[in-house]
């Protein structure tokens, strides 16, 4: 460790104390690699400030010493955004000690939280106050509100409640020079110039450190109806989605799709899971309705699916009669990420398309990938209700680094060209991070890139906030 690094650590210690520093390599191990175990880095130190004031002091010091900062929340991101490079010169700023629920205001229907609050804890706090915070995703037991904001996270209820941008009213941010921007406003209307809040949401740690947020709350759902259906085609599932929306309106809170291969992977690799239907279907959907009180939700879903079966839109369906059955279905859906990691090496595509274009996209992409003659299996699943597919391609676990790189270049171009042709997005909910940085440059227009780089320059002229990610 050189003298500058030693000095930096001593200065950081004077700000956060021993409890706020992680210096031993073995204790840093879980911070310097990502959840997928795909990216690995090194850091001078991991610093864990206890509050916004300490965060501001840490950032001011890094600004003065030109030390690059990688902000990290729960480290569950899927695009390598929270993993440092391997220079050893960067510092991880972990928000995990900033975990207080600052206030719940049931009358304004808002909650103010520290950025390091774990998503599940935010949901619990809302529930304890008789309210509901609807963001929900497989990593909710570990991801943080700051990470959700920084990636503009989506998840399973976007079709009803929107993504994180739609769920946040105000932010508190430590800017790259250490000043604190207090934008913790709980307003539904505020047209006082450019929306700075929306710039920070989705900025992936590149414009500042989010330290607090005002979140929207909703009425608690006391009734749910959950079903699993099997269909022959994605076109049929899209038609079923449209019918469900028309019949159930805002009661439709989740419409998740899984191909036969995605389901088979979970059944093989995740313990205590079993096939919901007697006959495997090419495409499956997990559908959930919710309402503040039970005004015949189950009957509504039963009638809808009965009609769909009569019309040969759906082959088979399982309607849950209790919460245990529903939990078993959600376990299958949420087990896909883990099953994929166990089964192979992944080339991930987190794409968004107009729902009406999805069936044709998948048909064309599958044909093109088959023509590549790779030893590849398509694991296609995702949030059909909002048009977001995880169109992942899995190659054997034994593939070498070079083979993965080669297949990634080939498949990214093929899939992302087709997505672009169909007016879709190459980055729907996981962020750009380091995974899609080159793809972003390839697909964004020069004008959009120029404007984004000018915003970055205006906020972070020393380029210390998460270098090598996003832009
Ligand atoms: P991290 O991984 O720590 O960081 C992610 C990015 O945000 C990095 O660029 C980091 O620098 C930045 N960042 C973190 N905190 C801050 C902060 N306070 N200020 C500024 N920048 C910050 N995502 C979805 O959208 N939908 C899903 O359905 C979904 N399902 C998942 C399921 C599993 C099993 C897993 C492992 C992940 C899933 N994810 C999903 C991805 C991930 O959970 C989300 O991206 C989540 O929002 C990341 O939160 P985090 O606290 O772990 O952030
Ligand atoms: C999900 O929807 C997550 O389960 C993870 O966004 C997707 O593993 C993936 O590619
Ligand atoms: Zn997802």
Features:
471 residues, alpha+beta, Uridine Diphospho-n-acetylenolpyruvylglucosamine Reductase, domain 2, Uridine Diphospho-n-acetylenolpyruvylglucosamine Reductase, domain 3, Alpha-Beta Plaits, five-stranded antiparallel sheet, 38% helix, binds flavin-adenine dinucleotide, binds (2R)-2-hydroxypentanedioic acid, binds zinc ion, FAD-bd_PCMH_sub1, catalytic activity, Hydroxyacid dehydrogenase
Secondary structure topology:
Layout: H1 3-16, E1 21-22, H2 25-28, E2 45-47, H3 52-65, E3 69-72, E4 91-94, E5 101-105, E6 110-114, H4 119-128, E7 131-132, H5 145-151, H6 158-161, H7 164-167, E8 168-174, E9 180-183, H8 196-200, E10 209-216, E11 218-219, E12 223-231, H9 234-248, E13 252-259, H10 260-269, E14 283-291, H11 297-310, E15 316-319, H12 323-334, H13 336-343, E16 344-347, E17 350-352, H14 358-371, E18 377-383, E19 388-396, H15 401-421, H16 437-443, H17 446-459
Parallel strand pairs: 2-4, 3-4
Antiparallel strand pairs: 1-2, 5-6, 6-10, 7-11, 8-9, 8-10, 12-14, 12-15, 13-14, 13-18, 16-19, 17-19, 18-19
Helix pairs in contact: 1-3, 9-11, 10-13, 14-15
Bound molecules: flavin-adenine dinucleotide (FAD), (2R)-2-hydroxypentanedioic acid and zinc ion.
């Amino acid at each position: 460790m050189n003298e500058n690094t030693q000095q930096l650590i001593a200065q950081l210690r004077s700000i956060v104390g021993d409890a706020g520093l992680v210096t031993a390599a073995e204790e840093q191990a879980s911070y310097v690699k990502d959840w997928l175990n795909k990216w690995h880095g090194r850091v001078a130190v991991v610093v864990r400030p206890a509050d916004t004031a300490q965060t501001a002091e840490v950032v001011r010091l890094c600004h003065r010493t030109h030390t690059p900062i990688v902000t990290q929340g729960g480290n569950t991101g899927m695009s390598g955004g929270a993993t440092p490079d391997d220079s050893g010169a960067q510092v991880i700023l972990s928000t995990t000690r900033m975990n207080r629920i600052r206030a719940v205001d049931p009358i304004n229907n808002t909650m103010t939280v520290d950025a390091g609050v774990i998503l599940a804890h935010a949901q619990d706090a809302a529930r304890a106050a008789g309210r509901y915070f609807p963001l929900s995703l497989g990593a909710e037991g570990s991801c943080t509100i700051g990470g959700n904001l920084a990636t503009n996270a989506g998840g399973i209820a976007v079709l009803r409640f929107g993504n994180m941008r739609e769920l946040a009213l105000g932010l508190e941010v430590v800017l790259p020079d250490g000043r604190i921007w207090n934008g913790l406003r709980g307003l539904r209307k505020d047209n006082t110039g450019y929306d700075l809040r929306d710039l920070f949401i989705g900025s992936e740690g590149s414009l500042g450190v989010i330290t607090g947020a005002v979140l929207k709350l909703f009425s608690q759902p006391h009734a749910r109806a959950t079903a699993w259906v099997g269909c022959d085609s994605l076109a049929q599932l899209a038609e079923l989605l449209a019918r469900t929306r028309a019949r159930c309106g805002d009661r439709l809170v989740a419409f998740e799709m899984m191909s036969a291969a995605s389901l088979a992977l979970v059944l093989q690799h995740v313990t205590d899971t079993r096939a919901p239907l007697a006959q495997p279907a090419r495409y499956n959907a997990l559908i959930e309705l919710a309402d503040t009180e039970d005004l015949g939700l189950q009957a509504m879903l039963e009638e809808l699916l009965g009609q769909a079966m009569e019309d040969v839109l759906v082959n088979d369906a399982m309607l849950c009669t209790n919460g245990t059955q529903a939990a078993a279905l959600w376990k299958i859906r949420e087990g896909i990420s883990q099953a994929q990691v166990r089964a192979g090496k992944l080339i991930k595509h987190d794409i968004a398309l107009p729902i009406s274009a999805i069936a044709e996209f998948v048909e064309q992409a599958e044909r093109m990938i088959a023509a590549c003659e790779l030893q590849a299996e398509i694991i296609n699943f995702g949030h059909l209700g909002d048009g977001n597919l995880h169109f992942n391609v899995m190659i054997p676990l034994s593939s070498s680094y070079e083979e993965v790189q080669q297949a990634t270049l080939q498949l990214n171009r093929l899939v992302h060209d087709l997505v672009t042709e169909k007016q879709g997005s190459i980055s729907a909910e996981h962020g750009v991070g380091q995974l899609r940085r080159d793809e972003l440059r390839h697909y964004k227009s020069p004008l959009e890139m120029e404007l984004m780089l000018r915003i970055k320059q205006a906020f972070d002229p020393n380029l210390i906030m998460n270098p090598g990610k996003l832009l």
